[in-house]
Amino acid sequence: MTRRVDQPRAKFCPNCGKPTQSVFTGGRHRDTCPECGFIQYATYSFGVGALVLRDETVLLVERGIPPIGVWTIPGGFLEQEDDVYTAVQREVYEEASLNVTPQGIVIVRNRVDANRNDMYIVMLCEALPDQQPVPDGRESTQACFVHPHDFDDMNISVFTRWVVEHYLAHRPSPMQMMTVPGYRSDAIIFGNI
Ligand SMILES: [Zn+2]
């Protein structure tokens, strides 16, 4: 796929503040710091969403931040120190006040626009049966378990609707966290068994 996307620029080095120079490296010109060696590569973002099912219903939140008023699965961006497990648990707790246990990855979306290259993964999660969702009133203005029959009457995100309906129709087995003996302990590996 060919897209009109510009290489991100850095006129000044974000590390030391020196003016950068355009240097051909890694197959293209990139703003590079002559002082400390910083190279402006692509800008990325990484998000995670939670698919939380309860009986025949799914946890959705009504967004209080743009796009305001749209219903989606709960989720958000990863912080620098996050792995996807801790990020998805925090985001569901923030937006719906539910404690969840991630079961694995069921959907991955890659979206490229002029500003960034974004990856978003959807994790199947389990919530304890007796917890009731509560919105935080800021990021989420409502939080509840919804039956897919009610999607037609809601302002639901096209992608969220597809995620729920695709999962319920096909029940793909999630890519689960695996341990790789002898491999570095700071990496989380997902794979199918
Ligand atoms: Zn520098």
Task: Give the secondary structure arrangement, pairings included.
Layout: E1 21-25, E2 28-32, E3 44-54, E4 57-63, E5 71-72, E6 75-77, H1 84-96, E7 100-112, E8 117-127, E9 140-146, H2 158-170, E10 176-178, E11 189-191
Parallel strand pairs: 3-8
Antiparallel strand pairs: 1-2, 3-4, 3-6, 4-5, 4-9, 7-8, 10-11
This protein binds zinc ion (ZN).
> In what range is the share of β-strand residues?
35-45%
Largest sheet: 7 strands, mixed
What's the CATH topology name of the largest domain?
Answer: Nucleoside Triphosphate Pyrophosphohydrolase
Total beta-strand segments: 11
CATH class of the largest domain, named Alpha Beta
**Coarse structural class:** mainly beta
The parts where pLDDT drops under 50 for at least 5 residues are: none
Number of domains: 2
- For the residues shown, what is the average pLDDT? 94
Going by CATH, the homologous superfamily of the largest domain would be Nucleoside Triphosphate Pyrophosphohydrolase
**Radius of gyration, rounded?**
20 Å
Name given to the CATH architecture of the largest domain: Alpha-Beta Complex
- Helix and strand succession? EEEEEEHEEEHEE
Termini Cα gap: 31 Å
Hetero ligands:
zinc ion
State the helix count: 2
Helix content: 10-25%
Overall form? globular
Pfam family, one: Zn_ribbon_Nudix
Domain Nudix hydrolase: 43-169
GO molecular function, one term: metal ion binding
Protein name: NUDIX domain-containing protein
